[in-house]
């Protein structure tokens, strides 16, 4: 997935989110070894220190872990990844519902529209 | 974290003009720092003092624990805003010159980068396009194993693809224990590779903060903040 970073939010948070999406979507498989910090930083065109900080955060949350000599790996705990997927999806749905409410749509109307869109 | 750069009470006057006034600045190892400010705010003066090309009028300036001099010049790698190289030299000659001049110059690394760019080492510097000239000079600077890299406007006047190459070179050749100081006014292009930014204004430091600190505190990019602070 290309790294499209917004200019107005902290880069660190955006990197964490991006990697979470890569884990959930299966771009990085459970147990897979991650590229080095330097390669990831170059790929995302960000500062290696910021990348390092984001990876440490994901490690702290348990989504990845380091082996002292062989690198950094994605968790093999699929339950945890599914939980993360649900969290990320819920956050997107909340944003969506907020927008629909601003358009003045009721829950029933939203459901009808969503179903119609999904048929297409 | 060790103090790599230590500046206390630095003032620089050019006859009646004050370019820097009572600047205090500390930089640690392992950071990429943007030196930002409008034209005439003192960026190049500060850089030239760090590189030993200008003498301060007053104040203390140390790099890696030494006053500016022979010891500091051997650990500072400087990309000037204007070239000092003879355009009639070939790139091969220039690399050889750097091997003679700098003990920490890694010639293999330099040739590798040149290869990636498919620039002919036997070409004379003056025959290269502006973008390629900039790239060759960056290769020279980044092929040294220095503690402090000082890049004065490294991406001015090159096309976006060359800019990406230059930023990528900076990231991928950067030794995590070294510090890079980049002066530029093209903030949005470099913002994502910086740890910290320094805003200079009228020869003084108006702001010294981390990029993410600014983004989370102000809810806007450093570029947007800069435009606000320096609105004409």
Account of the protein in words:
The complex is a heterodimer of chains A (120) and B (232). With 120 residues, chain A is mainly alpha-helical. Chain A is built from 5 helices and 2 strands. Chain A has a two-stranded antiparallel sheet. Chain A starts with 10 loop residues before the first helix and ends with a helix. The model of chain A has no long low-confidence stretch (mean pLDDT 92). With 232 residues, chain B is an alpha/beta fold. Chain B is built from 9 helices and 10 strands. In chain B, helix 5 runs parallel beside helix 6. Chain B starts with a strand and ends with a helix. At the A-B interface, helix 1, helix 2 and helix 3 of A face helix 6 and helix 8 of B.
Give the SSE layout.
The complex is a heterodimer of chains A (120) and B (232).
Chain A: H1 11-24, H2 37-44, H3 48-60, E1 64-67, E2 71-74, H4 78-102, H5 107-119
Antiparallel strand pairs in A: 1-2
Helix pairs in contact in A: 1-3, 1-4, 2-3
Chain B: E1 3-14, E2 17-28, E3 32-36, H1 43-50, E4 58-63, E5 66-67, H2 70-73, E6 76-79, H3 91-101, H4 107-116, H5 130-142, E7 148-152, H6 160-172, E8 179-184, H7 187-190, E9 196-201, E10 204-210, H8 211-218, H9 222-229
